[in-house]
Amino acid sequence: VKALLTEKYGSPLADNVFWKNDLFKDEPASWGLAVATGQLSYFTSWETKGTSIILDLTGDNYDIDFELEYSSKALRSLEEELDKKAAGTEF
User: Fold this and answer.
1) Which of 20, 43, 47, 61 has the fewest CB atoms within 10 Å, counting from its CB?
2) What 3 state SS string does the chain have?
């Protein structure tokens, strides 16, 4: 997916790999396990004229989350306003 997005949108604005510890770092065959246990995560983002794009792979307790998000820059203020309202109702 990352290669396809890079082909379509060009080089990512951010392309990060985060390790919580080095237990599996030198064992590429175990990187899937590292993601599943929360030891390894990936974050990549792109920007276009009107859109922010985020690709994220994380995990914890053998539950893996793969996220691809497209966010409109034109609607960002509306999204922030709705987030504030939602956060206010949680307290």
Assistant:
1) 61
2) CHHHHHHHHCCCCEEEEEECCCCCCCCHHHHHHHHHCCCEEEEEEEECCCEEEEEEEEEECCEEEEEEEEEECCCHHHHHHHHHHHHHHCC
